[in-house]
């Protein structure tokens, strides 16, 4: 009788451990997915802000329309790509936006325009938010990956189909200084 109770206790403990580990993996995965969606929210805000920024700049810059057209084109590509596949297009857009602010240096009236300054500040805040969201996502992905690869939770992860998550990486082009030529 005592052996049966002991065996039952072991089965219950193993069952609790399995359930706890599974639930932890689910929480980690959901947290990482939420973190990735936060990047999308910031990117959407950036996409919505870009037309206002472009229209404000158009009034001051008559000769750099190709720069502005490139930004509008990259915005469209980034919006269409979306999700994890949108990282490359999103990085290209971020690089092009840097050139807009470099372009503004040649137009003192534009730099003094309150609407442009407001849009520039808002875009800078969004870029900082995107960077924070990327770091948070990568930390969340690291936690999922650690749980999926570590013993003994890897046994549960493999049993229930939990996989490693990809990190959000910055494209090489985004790490380079912006070169604006007129």
Describe this structure in a few short sentences.
Helix content is 77%, strand content 0%.
Throw out a few tags for this protein.
mainly alpha, 77% helix, 182 residues, disordered C terminus, de novo design (two linked rop proteins), 6 helices
Question: Could you walk me through the main structural features you see in this protein, from its secondary elements to its overall organization?
Answer:
This protein is an all-alpha fold. The chain has a domain at 38-128: de novo design (two linked rop proteins) (Up-down Bundle), CATH 1.20.1440. Helices cover 77% and strands 0% of the residues. It is built from six helices and no strands. It has helices at 2-58, 65-81, 87-104, 108-112, 114-149, 153-160. Helix 1 runs antiparallel to helix 5 (114-149). The longest helix has 57 residues, at 2-58. 24% of the residues are buried.
Mean pLDDT equals 81
Give helix % range. Answer: over 70%
Q: How many strand units?
A: 0
| Gap between N and C termini | 89 Å
CATH topology category name of the domain at 38-128:
de novo design (two linked rop proteins)
Based on the coordinates given, report the CATH architecture of the domain at 38-128.
Up-down Bundle
Sketch the topology as an H/E string, one letter per element. Answer: HHHHHH
Instruction: Please give the count of helices.
Output: 6
CATH superfamily of the domain at 38-128: LemA-like domain
């Amino acid at each position: 009788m005592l052996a049966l109770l002991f065996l039952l206790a072991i089965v219950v403990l193993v069952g609790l451990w399995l359930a706890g580990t599974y639930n932890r993996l689910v929480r980690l995965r959901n947290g990482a997915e939420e973190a990735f969606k936060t990047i999308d929210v910031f990117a959407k805000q950036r996409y919505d802000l870009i037309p206002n920024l472009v229209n404000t700049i158009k009034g001051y810059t008559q000769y750099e329309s190709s720069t502005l057209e490139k930004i509008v084109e990259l915005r469209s590509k980034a919006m269409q790509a979306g999700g994890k596949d949108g990282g490359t297009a999103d990085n290209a857009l971020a690089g092009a936006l840097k050139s807009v602010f470099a372009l503004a240096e040649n137009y003192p009236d534009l730099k003094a325009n309150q609407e442009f300054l407001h849009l520039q500040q808002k875009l800078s805040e969004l870029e900082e938010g995107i960077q924070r969201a990327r770091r948070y996502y990568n930390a969340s992905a690291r936690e999922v990956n650690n749980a999926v690869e570590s013993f003994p939770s890897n046994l549960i992860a493999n049993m229930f189909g939990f996989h490693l998550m990809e990190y959000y990486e910055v494209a090489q082009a985004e790490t380079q200084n912006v070169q604006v030529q007129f």
